[in-house]
Amino acid sequence: MSNPVIVVHYHELWLKGGNRKFFLGKLFTALRQSLGGVPVERIEQPGDRFVVRLGEGASVEEAIRRVQRVLGVAYYAVAHPVERDMETLCRAAWDEVSPLRFANFAVRAKRSDKSFPHPVTEIESTVGRHLLEQLRAQGRDVRVQLKNPELTCHIEVTPGPLLVYARKIPGPGGLPANTAGRLACLLSGGYDSAVAAYHMMKRGAHLSFIHFYGTGAEPGESSLHVASGLVRALVPYQFRAKLYRVPFEAIQRNIVQFAPEGVRILLYRRMMLRIAEVLAGRDHALALVTGDSLGQVASQTLRNLVAVDAAARMPVFRPLIGADKMDIIETARKIGTYDISSEPFHDCCPVFMPRTPELSARPAELAEAETKLDINSLIQLGLRGTTIERFSYAEGRVEATEPKPLVRADQQHTAMA
Q1: Using the 8-state DSSP alphabet, how is residue 32 labeled?
Q2: How far is CA 208 from CA 184, 185, 242, 388, in A?
């Protein structure tokens, strides 16, 4: 019996015209890296799909788990390899569809190997007739429906065995990893920023992560373990990642001492953007990413977002700006970050929370509130305490280094100023 085969399809990459070869090459690399450690004979590209031929002893379940996190994959299927004759093909198609329940069906064939003597129309009609006869013999009220069938039996004619499958598994879609440049994501520890990062990864961006944490938490309540856990969950989508860990409480205390109470949170966020820009520049990132959703909390009103952004020189991307909270949580469950973000942790932003936060700040108002702050010194303060944790994903495992101090942080800021 032949080893299992996974058929991988993509959609959006067909729109890339002359750049298609680049994107397909990245998708091939991502498949190969994701399946590292799984016995794979080879990965082929017959026509408009990839065919992963698993080796002896390969776990199909593990291979599926890996492919599920390969960005750029529209859907995939575990296919049954069968000998290259019509009688065997018909039997294999019946074995594939007979356990399934459906009211109508169609057979669709693709022939990338033209040496197979039967044309596509003959394959589809012969197999379809055989399936219908078997279904009727079982007394099942099923009919053929060529347009929008409930079930499709797929047949792939490749240079090797014929491939048969009827159960398509949705992939994450999007673009392959590391095809769209670098971004830096402000990772809070909550549901939103991790989901925002995932959405940008799906568009091919490579993200580094910046987490601001409070140092006054009770033992075991620090947000650092949550931030590290979120990066661990996300790094399989892009294979490598950095987490910058920035202590923020001393900066907050300075803001509380010199700034009006109502705008504290907004000034926190402006300082976070300034520090994040320095760290983003260190990684050659072109923009920042946050998990803001319009109107979700007081600091995320439209006017407040605009006023906060006025402190940044880099663009700030907010992929969740129009997202519903329930949709965000659903995505967090899907990508494996929900349980991590649900853990108790000490969030630095609510510290020294104003009793009546400003809902409609203006950039000039916040700039005026910052006149008593030594902005450059506060940036330096944050950078001096920053540590870096590096993550890598290979052979199905995530490895992380011990956090190390940011090297020459003050020189980095001077270069960016």
Answers
A1: H
A2: 5, 6, 5, 10
- Which segments within 294-348 are labelled E, that is strand? 316-317
- CA distances in angstroms from 150 to 153, 173, 219, listed in the order given: 10, 22, 55
In 35-79, which residue ranges form alpha helices assigned H by DSSP?
60-67
Same domain (yes/no): 209, 98: no
What CATH code is carried by the domain that includes residue 343? 3.40.50.620
Question: 317 and 378, same structural domain?
Answer: yes
Model confidence pLDDT, tens digit, residues 209-253: 999 998 755 545 678 999 999 999 999 999 999 999 999 999 999
Structural domain contains residue 177 = no
Encode pLDDT of 333-348 as tens digits: 999 999 999 987 666 5
The secondary structure of 182-229 as a DSSP string is EEEEE--SSHHHHHHHHHHHHTT-EEEEEEEE-S-PPTT-BTHHHHHH
What is the C-alpha separation between 400 and 240, in angstroms, rounded?
A: 10
Count CB-CB contacts under 10 A for residue 39.
13
Nearest to 210 by CA among 264, 266, 263, 287: 287
At 348 the pLDDT is: 59
Burial class (CB in 10 A: 0-12, 13-18, 19+), 364: exposed
DSSP letter for each residue of 92-115: HHHHHHTTS--SEEEEEEEES-TT
CA atoms within 13 A on the CB side of 115: 6
**Structural domain that includes position 265:** 182-416
Answer yes or no: do 93 and 228 share one domain: no
